[in-house]
Amino acid sequence: MVGTGCSGTNAYRYGTMREWVLSLTVVLADGTVIKTRQRPRKSSAGYDLTKLFIGSEGTLGLITEATLKLTVTPASQNVAVASFPSIQNAAECVTHVVEAGIPVAGVEILDDVQMKCINASGSTSREWKESPTIFFRFAGTPGAVKEQVGMVQKIASKTASKSFEFARGDEEMAELWSARKAALWSVMAMRRNPDDHVWTTDVAVPMSRLPDIIDATKADMAKSGLLAGICGHVGDGNFHAIILFSDKEKEIAEGVVHRMVKRAVEMEGTVTGEHGVGLVKRDYLAHELGESTVDAMRRLKMAFDPLRLLNCDKVVRTEQPAPGEVKEW
Amino acid sequence: MVGTGCSGTNAYRYGTMREWVLSLTVVLADGTVIKTRQRPRKSSAGYDLTKLFIGSEGTLGLITEATLKLTVTPASQNVAVASFPSIQNAAECVTHVVEAGIPVAGVEILDDVQMKCINASGSTSREWKESPTIFFRFAGTPGAVKEQVGMVQKIASKTASKSFEFARGDEEMAELWSARKAALWSVMAMRRNPDDHVWTTDVAVPMSRLPDIIDATKADMAKSGLLAGICGHVGDGNFHAIILFSDKEKEIAEGVVHRMVKRAVEMEGTVTGEHGVGLVKRDYLAHELGESTVDAMRRLKMAFDPLRLLNCDKVVRTEQPAPGEVKEW
C-alpha cells in the first residue's frame, strides 16, 4: 500500500529513550555479534530485533553499540510551573490541555510532599508552593510556544491553579525547571541518618486513572508513616514514588510498593513504566499479563540463551520457584 | 532512575502504524491466546512482544485484536503544496525545514512522472505542475499552524520553488491533498490494457541520501522504458515506486526493483520501509543485515512456531534453499 506512512519531521515530545534508538549491536549468549538494523528511520524488513533487546535487561544479549536518531534543538523553548490545591485539579488541567490539542513537549507532576522536600533540602535557589505542582515544557517555533503558554495558562486558571509562572528567558527557564530536576536528590537529602535507604519505583496506568492511583498511593504512604514523594510523567500516565526508609522500616516500604503495584494492575496498568522488572517485580508479570504471556517471554529467553548464561532468572524465571518463594498477591 | 522519561502530550507527526499500537491479542501456533500488554502508554515490564508481532507478517502468530492509542483532532490543520525544478531542490527545501525546527506533521514528495499521471488520469479536479512536488501537512494550535506555513513558504522560495500554495479552508485543504491521495490510482489508470500489472514497492534510506537514491532510481526507470511514478515519505527517507508493466516486461520490472533495493542497502538503508519482505524480498535480508542477524530472526520463528505452521518460509527461510534458487546479488 502506498500512503500508510505519511511522515512528519521533528515532533517535540520527549518520549522514552526506546523511541530514539534506530539500531543496536548485540553480543548474543553464544558469542555471535549481530547488528539489529541499518540506520534509516523506518524499516519493515524482518522482525523488530531492536525493540526486542531494548528493555530486555541484559537477559537476551549484551548491547555494545546503539545508533540513535538525531533531532535539532527546537527554535524556541519555554517552561511553565502551575500549582494546584489537589492532584485531581492538576490532572484535570492536563486533561483539558490534551483535549485542546496543545502539543506540550513535556508535562510533569510533583506532589506536595515532593515540593516540601525541595524547599526543606534547599536544593534550588527559591521557595516553592508546597502543593501539587505541574511543570510544563514547551518547544517549537517561537509563535507556537508563546501561543501554547497562553493557552495553558488560561486552562490552568479555569482548573483552580493557585499560581502560574512561565519563564522570560533562559535563566528563568532553568530556574523553573530546577525543582523538577531536584526531585530525587531532595528526598535523599531528607535522610535522618546515613543508613536510611531510598526506594525509587514506578508504575503506569491509562492516563485517566493517574489521579486516582496517585491519591490512593499517597493516602497509603501517609498511613505508613514513611516519607515518600511522588513525581509523575502525566502525559504517559506514569509516576515514580521515592520512598525513604530505615532497615527497620523495610517491610513497611515493601508493603507500600506491593500495594501500589497491585493498584496499577487493577487499573489496567503496568507494574513498571520505566524501571524494568528485574528480580523484585518479576513475579508480578503474570498478574499483569497472564501466565501464557510470561510463557511466551520465556520462549524468547530460551531461544536466545538456552544455557541461561545471561542475567539468569531476571525478567522471567527459567525454573519453577521453590515452595513459598513467590510473594502472595 | 527518576526523570528519564519526561512525557509530552499529543505530537502531531503521523508516524507509522506501529507507533500507535499499545497492545495485541495473538493466537500462537500451538493455539495459546496471549495478550501482549495492558493499555498504559508506557511499560517496561518484560520483553516487548507487541513490537515483535507487529510486522511479523503472520509468521509468529495470528493477531486477532489491537488496542490503539487515541489522540484528539488537531485544533487547526493546513496543507501546502510546492513544486520544484528538481528532486534535489525539493529535498533541499525539506532539509532546511527540518533544520529550522519546524514540526511539520507530514511531508510527502511526488515526482514529475507521478504528477503527469495525476493530470492525465483526471483523478483530481484540477491541473498540476508536472514537476517534483512536495505536499506538507500542518497540525497544531491555530497560530502555530499559520506561523509554520509562513516559515515553510519562505524556505521553499529560497530553494527555488516554482510554486507554493496553501489552503484557505477545509475545501481547499482537501483539494490540495487530493493529488497525494490519487498517486497510486492515477498510475493504475495509465494501464494500456487490462492485463498490465502494477508493482508497488518501497525502500528507505537515511534522509540525507533520499534525493540521490530517487534520482538514480528515476534514471534507471527512464532507461527501462517502463512507466513508473515515485511517491516518498521524505521525513522518513522512505519512498515507493509504482511501476506499470506487461507480462512481457516482467523481467525488466524485476531488474528495476532489484537495483533499487541494492542501491538502498548500499546507502545504509533498508530493502523495505513499510511493505515487509514476504517472499520476494526475503533473500535480500542477509544483504541488509548480515547472516547472523537473519539467524537470530530464524531463532524467533522456530521458538514461536517450531512446527512451521504459520506462513512458512516467509520473512525467513527455515530450510536451505535449493541450488540456484536464490537470486544473484
UniProtKB/TrEMBL annotation, chains A, B:
Q: Which cofactor does it need?
A: FAD
GO-annotated biological processes: lactate catabolic process
SUPFAM superfamilies, alphabetized = FAD-binding/transporter-associated domain-like (SSF56176), FAD-linked oxidases, C-terminal domain (SSF55103)
Q: Which Gene3D superfamilies match?
A: 3.30.465.10, 3.30.70.2740, Vanillyl-alcohol Oxidase, Chain A, domain 4 (1.10.45.10)
Catalytic reaction(s) noted = (R)-lactate + 2 Fe(III)-[cytochrome c] = 2 Fe(II)-[cytochrome c] + pyruvate + 2 H(+)
Annotated FAD-binding PCMH-type domain ranges read 1-73
Task: List the record's Gene Ontology CC terms alphabetically.
Answer: mitochondrion
Q: Per UniProt, which keywords does this protein have?
A: FAD, Flavoprotein, Oxidoreductase
A Pfam family annotated for this UniProt entry: FAD-oxidase_C
Q: What EC number(s) has UniProt assigned to this enzyme?
A: 1.1.2.4
Which top class of enzyme applies to this chain? Answer: oxidoreductase
Q: Which GO terms describe its molecular function?
A: D-lactate dehydrogenase (cytochrome) activity; D-lactate dehydrogenase (NAD+) activity; FAD binding
What does the similarity note say?
Belongs to the FAD-binding oxidoreductase/transferase type 4 family.
What protein is this chain from?
D-lactate dehydrogenase (cytochrome)
